[in-house]
Model the fold of this input.
Amino acid sequence: MAKKKVLVVGGTGYIGKRIVRASLAQADHITTYVLQRREMGSDIDKVQLLFSFKKQGARLIEASFSDHNSLVDAVKQVDVVICTISGGHPGHPGSLLLQLKLVEAIKEAGNIKVNY
Done:
């Protein structure tokens, strides 16, 4: 059986880094991809975390929430997408908008079965 390709979006966050580590621990069955957002900029802690994941076997996929086609291209490379971006809150609803952009990219890519 072929390994599943799993993309973790939000892989440097509180929950995301734990999901990435758990996925990497299943390397016999899963190839772990982590979305490297261009918007991340030079947040040194996040960059170091991403490169530590890469050293452990993760594949980094660069994409941007402001570039729909890059998200679609990222999704087309995998079998499963796990989004660990928070849903936002009244003072910061932007996270929910990012999730909606990801859902649109998943729909357009057409290779991921969406479960609600």
Remarks:
- The mean pLDDT is 90.
- Residues 4-105 form a domain with the Rossmann fold fold (CATH 3.40.50.720).
- The CA atoms of residues 24 and 87 lie 25 Å apart.
